């Protein structure tokens, strides 16, 4: 257990202080030093988890996650709780390994956000007894897909439940990092993702206004 806690502190140090945390994590992988024990293997399993090349030209889930943590590192100054935010960025797609399937020739990972919430709790409980921290990370993981669902008016959108558990602004910030953490990101795509974030925040604001719920103003 002491070894796991030491790794937890080491991971945390790089997530919080490195400009590009991916350099540390990829170095561990390249030198075959990435811990193979549970729960760290839940992360390394992402290396063998494929994604649709149409939506993720960067390749597997590990590559995507590394891009996301680097973008998150740049934007964590905007976060209400940077430590929670950075760990959520690292663990946000943990649910893809067990949910990724090939259906009719397409790679899918349905409900990876819900599975990811459970796995992120299990992951962090192995390393720390900070229940509030664990819950806040898991809630961000759970709701990180809502920007897609809300903006496209998909049936999976659930603003009501989301706002009970997490700051809308924090979800928007993590979702922006998630959307930008992809290969072949052009300026047009960047602007499109920024606009999607604004649309997401607007729809959430409308919802909470109609339902007299507390709302956190956007800050970027």
From TrEMBL:
Keyword Transmembrane helix: no
Top-level lineage group: Bacteria
HD domain location: 61-146
SUPFAM superfamilies given in the database record: HD-domain/PDEase-like
Alphabetically ordered keywords of this record: Nucleotide-binding
InterPro entries the UniProt entry points to: HD/PDEase_dom, HD_domain, HDIG_dom, tRNA_CCA-adding_enzyme
Matching PANTHER family: CC-ADDING TRNA NUCLEOTIDYLTRANSFERASE (PTHR47545:SF2), MULTIFUNCTIONAL CCA PROTEIN (PTHR47545)
Protein name as it appears in the record: HDIG domain-containing protein
Record organism: Clostridium aestuarii
Classification of source organism: Bacteria, Bacillati, Bacillota, Clostridia, Eubacteriales
């Amino acid at each position: 257990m002491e070894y796991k806690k030491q790794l937890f502190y080491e991971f945390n140090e790089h997530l919080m202080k490195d400009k590009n945390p991916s350099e540390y994590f990829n170095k561990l992988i390249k030198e075959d030093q990435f811990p193979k024990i549970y729960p760290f293997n839940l992360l390394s399993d992402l290396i063998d988890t494929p994604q649709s090349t149409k939506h993720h030209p960067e390749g597997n889930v590990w590559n995507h996650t590394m891009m996301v943590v680097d973008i998150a590192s740049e934007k964590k100054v905007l976060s209400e709780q940077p430590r929670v935010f950075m760990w959520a960025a690292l663990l946000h797609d943990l649910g893809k390994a067990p949910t990724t399937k090939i259906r009719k020739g397409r790679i899918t990972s349905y409900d990876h956000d819900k599975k990811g919430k459970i796995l992120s709790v299990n992951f962090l409980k192995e390393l720390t007894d900070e229940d509030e921290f664990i819950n806040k990370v898991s809630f961000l993981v759970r709701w990180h897909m809502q920007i897609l669902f809300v903006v496209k008016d998909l049936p999976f959108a659930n603003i009501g439940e989301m706002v009970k558990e997490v700051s809308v602004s924090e979800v928007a910030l993590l979702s922006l990092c998630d959307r930008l953490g992809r290969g072949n990101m052009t300026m047009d795509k960047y602007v499109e993702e920024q606009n999607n974030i604004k649309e997401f925040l607007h729809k959430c604001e409308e919802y909470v206004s109609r339902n007299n719920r507390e709302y956190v103003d956007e800050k970027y």
